Amino acid sequence: MASATNHIVPMSARKYMTVPVEEIRVLNSRNRDKAQFEQNIRSIDAVGLLKPIVVNGRPHAKHGYYELICGEGRFLAHKTLKKERIAAEVLDCDRKTALLFSLVENIARVPPRSIAFAYEVKRMRDGGLAMARISQIVGRPEADVAEYICLVEAGEERLIAGVEQGLFPISFALKVARSSTTAIQQVLMDAFDSGLINSA
């Protein structure tokens, strides 16, 4: 069985086919940028699908459906356009390996040291990957990965919103989240909002 991170399948060994859209199930869904998604729909409608999606074919014989590994945006665009079939590379792997492929694909698409990165490493941990393995995949120390996960799990909504809106970098959000008490966090956020401190 191929590793998701250190083995490249030669073109001659890859299996491509058109798959019924209604027989695909999303393995690892994630939030999508609305503007980018609408652009994908327009592009596929105008010129067709330029890059096949990737699915796991192993569940099909048993359950009658394929598990989507990567290409959710392209898949959803086909559904929106009411297309019946979609070009796909069909892999044959166990569910854990399929999930790993999907998670690695997602993490490769997000900017490093961003809130999107934080959400994705948490999803990797929730998917059953060990911290050491996540650290290896994303190329960040385990301590950094743990801090990103902590920020998301803590539900620091004001901090997360600030990062997503570009008000301050995630490095500042992590500094505030590490503060020992809620009162200190509030003071730091108020000071940042008023311009008394910066994120340096």
Annotation keywords:
200 residues, alpha/beta, 5-stranded mixed sheet, 52% helix, elongated, disordered N terminus
Structure description:
By secondary structure, the protein is of the alpha/beta class. It has a five-stranded mixed beta sheet with strand order 1-5-3-4-2. The protein has ten helices and five strands, in the order E-E-H-E-H-E-H-E-H-H-H-H-H-H-H.
Cα gyration radius (Å)? 20 Å
Tell the overall outline: elongated
Q: Strand arrangement, largest sheet?
A: 1-5-3-4-2
- List the helices and strands in order: EEHEHEHEHHHHHHH
Distance between the termini: 46 Å
Counted by DSSP, the helix tally is 10
In which range does the helix fraction lie?
40-55%
Residue ranges: pLDDT <50 for 5 or more in a row? 1-7
Output mean pLDDT.
Answer: 81
Which band does the percent of strand residues land in? 5-15%
Class based on secondary structure composition and strand pairing: alpha/beta
The largest pleated sheet is described as: 5 strands, mixed
Give the number of DSSP strands. 5
Structure in a nutshell:
The protein has helices at residues 34-47, 58-63, 72-80, 95-109, 115-126, 131-138, 142-153, 157-164, 170-177, 182-193; strands at residues 16-20, 24-26, 53-56, 66-70, 85-91.
What is this structure's SSE topology?
Blueprint lengths: L15 E5 L3 E3 L7 H14 L5 E4 L1 H6 L2 E5 L1 H9 L4 E7 L3 H15 L5 H12 L4 H8 L3 H12 L3 H8 L5 H8 L4 H12 L7
Parallel strand pairs: 2-4, 3-5
Antiparallel strand pairs: 1-5, 3-4
Helix pairs in contact: 1-3, 4-5, 5-7, 6-7, 8-9
